[in-house]
Amino acid sequence: MKILRKARKIIDTINEFVGKIGKYVLLIILATLVFEVVSRYVFNSPTIWVADISTQALAALGALGGGYALLYNQHVRVDVFYGAWSDRLKGIVDIITSILFFTFTIVLFLKSLEMCMDAWNFRERSSTTFAMPLWYIKTLMPIGTFLLLIQGIAKLLHDITAIATGKSEDLKTL
Predict the structure, then answer these.
(1) φ, ψ for residue 133 (rounded to 5)?
(2) Residue 170: inside a domain, yes or no?
């Protein structure tokens, strides 16, 4: 059990760090949009780059946020019955549904890796006037999917511990 807890702690720490980066990405989105509003309506001088920057920052936030959301148990779940179940039963149900989770996440990882490689090979750019490069932002999708995958492994380790001990360890909550 000690090894499982240590592995979980490492994965949780990685996703916690990436999640904290997200608040700075939100600041970038906010700053660029405020800059655009002031530039457009105060100085009558709209920009061509703000839409690309804010869209790509939002894409980065979405790509990297999955593992962090799973760490804090914030993914969507039907909680009508789940909330009343024992920790052991929750662990069993979570392990059964993790088969679907891992299948989806592995396919998403492989497809996003393929998309990323194509973007790098073709030096893909956005179709806007600014023509911002897309290959580096598309690299975040397989990275984010990998972080989601390892956080899913950490959750699976948590569920195994819950079944073995009959009680759930403290999950992070907001």
Answers:
(1) -65, 140
(2) no
The residue-averaged pLDDT of 117-143 equals 88
Label residue 1 exposed, middle or buried (CB < 10 Å: 0-12, 13-18, 19+). Answer: exposed
Of residues 150, 90, 140, 83, the one with CA closest to residue 113 = 140
One-character DSSP codes across 53-91? HHHHHHHHHHHHHHHHHHHTT-S----TTGGGS-HHHHH
Inside any domain, residue 139: yes
Distance CA 152, CA 119 (A): 27
C-alpha separations of 90 from 8, 11, 77, 85, 98 in Å: 18, 21, 12, 6, 12
pLDDT one-digit tens code per residue, 124-135: 888 887 888 888
Q: List pLDDT tens digits, range 46-77.
A: 998 888 889 889 999 999 999 999 998 887 77
In a domain, 124, yes or no: yes
Dist. CA 38–CA 31, nearest whole Å: 11
